[in-house]
Amino acid sequence: RAGEDVDGLVDLVRAHAGSFVGIGPRWEVDPEAWWREIEVNSRGTFKCGRAVVRAVIARQRGRIINLTGGGTANSFPNGSGYGTSKAGLLRFTESFGDTLAGTGVLTFAMDPGLVRMTMTEFQLNDAAGKTWLPDIEKLFENKVDVPPTRAAELSVAIGAGRFDAMAGRMLMAARG
What we know:
Layout: E1 12-15, H1 31-59, E2 62-67, H2 80-99, E3 105-111, H3 118-125, H4 127-132, H5 134-141, H6 148-159, E4 170-172
Parallel strand pairs: 1-2, 2-3, 3-4
Helix pairs in contact: 1-2
């Protein structure tokens, strides 16, 4: 029900939108592809949280997790659209959390790490990805990827309240 408010018993929401197709140096990336990444990653996450926030405020409890990613805490050469959008989500999470202060609703940012998925497979197989992001293939070859179960486990721990003291911050689903 994208764009609609959600009623009912919502305790935990993990908002994630991921697009990363604008690969390469700024002067070579299609501006429309770059902007679409900003829009998909930022607006998608915004709309997901917006759909549930009234319900969790009414219950005076709940947790909202916004997934960040590469480029959030450091530079992301040849992935500036993705990195910019994900860094913006960290600040959005902080601001959203401060706005919700006193409501019983907590926000968290989560970096799931480098996870092998459709988006990273695109980067591995796309000509621009092969040219401008060759380290991703090397990272996978060296088994530096993070299993998706790590982000799921961290989400459950956040939902259980184990990280409430860290609300508004970014948590990492690092390799275990």
